Amino acid sequence: MKFNNILKRLFCSLLAATFVIGGACATYAAARTYSFSDLDIEIEVPSELAVFTRNVTSADKSLELIQTTSDELLVMFQEYGIYLEAFPTDVSYELVVSGKAVSEDIKDLNTLSDAELKQGLQTYREKCESVTTDEIIDIKTYKNNTTIFYQADFKTVTENVTVYVQKYYTVMQGKELNFTVQSKDVAVTDVQASQLKAVVDSTVYKQINPSIFESPIFTELSGYLLGLLLTVGVLGGIILLVIKSSNKKK
Asked: Whole-model pTM?
């Protein structure tokens, strides 16, 4: 009987630990809020989109949708300064958040005068037009409650593949930030543009302290630990059933 009680307590403890870890992971995912300490921003992403960040691991089933590996994705993220990529299940378009630190002589757009903003917009247009594969559709200034952006719509053609792009560009807190939606062969729709604008408008600019949740190693280990606890919990339940059945026969 004493052994039976010990097993029950062990089984309950394992289940509790499983729910704590599983619940924490589920809450983190369900909130659809992502923080990036490198960029000092916090953003919200529409819940219907699959999301990759720099803590992506090989266990992420969404990798099958884009036919790549976590290692390949992380290499691309590092190369292009990407911190988040989101897309629907049909992978018909993608939202991308990228950024990097800039030198102190590059001012935040919010601090520029009207004349400086106008000149900056012209410089940004010229920079976009210098890319020979890009055709500019429209470039303008966009301002929400907190931030000023340069908003660009263009299409790019490479090896007979046309990609339509809408991008919001800003400099905030010494960070250059790009919020982008791009669609292959079909112009960006109103729905896609609204999703991008929602991400842009949701962005909170504040100091973000580095977190272990940003580490792919932590994500990988927590996944393995959760799987181990579930396995042990199931085995514990089976043992309890066997012992209970044996006691009834006696």
From this structure: 0.74
